[in-house]
Each structure stands twice: as C-alpha cells, then as structure tokens.
Amino acid sequence: MRNRLVLQEITRTFEDGGIERTILDKLNLEVVEGELVAVMGPSGSGKSTFLSIAGALLEPTSGDVLLDGESIIGKNKQELSEMRLRKIGFIFQSANLIPYLKVDEQLMVVAKLAGMDKEKAAKRAKELLDKMGLLHRRTAYPEKLSGGERQRVAIARALMNDPAVLFADEPTASLDASRGHDVVSMIAKQVKDQRKSAVMVTHDDRVLALCDRVLFLENGKLIKK
C-alpha cells in the first residue's frame, strides 16, 4: 500500500521576543491509504501548526510534505490553492456550511471550483449524499439540519473532489457522544472504502477505537504511547 501523506523531518520555528522557539522538531509521519490516524496533544503542543503544514496552508521552516507523492515545497500561492482543492479534503470542528446553499449545492460549488463537469458532479454529489444517508435532505438548508447531519454534509463535501488526503480538526467537538461516534465511524468507513489517507486531530478519547493509530504530539514530535 502506498503512503498518500508523508511528512519528512518537519521543523517549524518562530521568533518570540528575539528568542527562536521551536514548535515542530524534525517531525515525521507516514499515512498509508485506507488509514485513519488520530493525533492528540494538550493545547499549545503545536497541533494547529502541524495540521496547517500537513494541509499545505503553512510552509515548514525545513522538511517536506508529500501529498499523493507531490511535494508542497517551492510552490506559489496559486499552485498550493490548486493542490488543496484537488488533493485535500478538510472537515472542521464546525461544519462551516454556507447558510444560503442547500445540501446538494454545498457539494456542487466545490466541484465547480475544481472545474468538474456539471453532469459528473451531480452524479458524484448524489452518490456521496446517498452514502451519508442524506439523499432525502438534499434540498434542505443548513439551519434545518441537526448537528450530526451538518457534519455528514461536511464529510461529503470534503470527499467531493476525490482528494488523496482527509484532515479532520476536532470533528466531534460540537456533538454528543452518540453523534460524535457516528461521524467518526463514517469518516473511517469512507477512508477505507475510498483508499484515502486521513488524519484527525482530536481531544475526544471516545472515538479513538475507530482509528487505526493514535499518536501524541509532544516536544515537537509525534510519538506512539
């Protein structure tokens, strides 16, 4: 199996009052296709920085990130934007749905940005919503959806452009235990069925059993306990 996400010797430093501080220190990570990896760590441990670098939102001070075998290093803003659109799916703490778009339109707008054929996009949106158990809600607006339904729409939207890698940032934070379990279970199933690599940053130990690996960010490195 191939690694769809690779972080090699990632270091990120910043200046603080004339002192150089290290957030990530030669961090390494490989995630194979079909694998969901949970990353945990206390506030201030560098999880947001890690996720931003892995998701091509922030360039490391040194090291490299490979998304489906392609490096993010040295690319300009437009190239990185294209890379994120085509290779990465993001699922956030809040579903971040566009309030004036219906469920199916949330997916279609992402496909339009990527230049996907309209007929192909409509077919894929229908398939994804069916998998998420949301086909009957396709014409509903976000305000009419439950928290769990909104997160399922967010998962479908993240998968719309068939990305290589999924990143989930505290996807259960606003959900109760049952809905949180359902959402992560759905992420895990899609990752395995569609052979994605996925990383989930979480504080929710109730969903760790659904993950293939659990890593802890400590002293700038990912470690397994």
UniProtKB/TrEMBL annotation:
Residues annotated as domain ABC transporter: 5-225
Keywords, ordered alphabetically: ATP-binding, Cell membrane, Membrane, Nucleotide-binding, Transport
Subcellular location(s) of the protein: Cell membrane
Keyword Transferase recorded: no
Family stated for the protein in its record: Belongs to the ABC transporter superfamily. HrtA family.
Function field: Part of the ABC transporter complex hrt involved in hemin import. Responsible for energy coupling to the transport system.
Protein name, per record: Putative hemin import ATP-binding protein HrtA
Organism of provenance: Paenibacillus ferrarius
